[in-house]
Specification:
- With about 130 residues, the protein is mostly beta strands.
- About 5% of the residues lie in helices and about 40% in strands.
- It has two helices and seven strands; from the N terminus they run E-E-H-H-E-E-E-E-E.
- The strands form two sheets. Strands 1-6-3-4 form a four-stranded antiparallel sheet, with no helix packed on it. The chain has a three-stranded antiparallel sheet with strand order 5-2-7, with no helix packed on it.
- Strand 3 and strand 4 form a beta hairpin.
- The two termini are about 20 Å apart.
């Protein structure tokens, strides 16, 4: 839908470039235009104890630090929500937007707290639409 076609070797993870042609991150496509009003971005864990205590991989080094929720407006990706800081585990948030789209993407636009620049999310849960 956005005209981006690249080989799988480009990577399945957002490389942090935040460009309109970056195919990384996670995308979701709805049958009809939807507005995302809340999300829960689950981090990756290295033990069940950390999962139950909401401590991201490597003692929190993979906490989210720079995230954008984007939607496709028919001609370009637009930003609906930006997070900057330390998620201290999963990122759970409300999204204040009036945007409706069939196409949404969540992207890591910088490095995790521990320095890695890829998304490393295990699940993208829409808590309110």
């Amino acid at each position: 839908f956005d005209g981006t076609i690249v080989p799988w070797t480009h990577g399945y993870r957002s490389d942090g470039s935040d460009s309109d042609t970056d195919p990384g991150g996670m995308e979701i496509r709805f049958a009809s235009p939807t507005s995302i009003r809340g999300l829960h971005l689950h981090c990756i864990y290295d033990s069940s104890a950390n999962m139950h205590n909401n401590v991201c991989y490597s003692s929190g080094a993979y906490d989210f630090a720079s995230i954008k929720l984007k939607y496709w407006d028919g001609s370009a990706w637009q930003t609906a929500y930006t997070f900057s800081g330390d998620s201290n585990g999963d990122l759970v948030t409300n999204v204040s937007t009036t945007a409706y789209s069939k196409y949404w993407a969540i992207m890591n636009t910088g490095a995790h707290v521990g320095g890695n620049g890829h998304l490393h999310a295990s699940e993208f849960e829409i808590t309110s639409a």
